[in-house]
Amino acid sequence: MQVSINILTDGEIFLDMLKAVIREWYRSPWEHERQRARYALTLYQQALNVYQEYLAEAKSRAETGYNTDVDRRLVDDMQTRLAYWQKKLAELTGATAQGEVASQA
Prior knowledge:
Blueprint: H1 7-25, H2 31-64, H3 69-104
């Protein structure tokens, strides 16, 4: 079985769900929950990589095409959304790294 997620249309809810899983289970006392959180973190990073690749393609198409105001707005919106989700990833990994240090101390 294979599942596909359209990051452009369903990315917000998908990344929100992954973010919730990571926050909830990363420091869980149960290994199976920590494993799920690590998997969610991997999916989150993969989704951002896909989004970043698509953004680069969209930006290139806009620059080589007519580069209308609509094109620039779409690319700007995509860059803003990517920056937001990258910031959330940094917050999550920072929080998880602190959690690891605290649990090892």
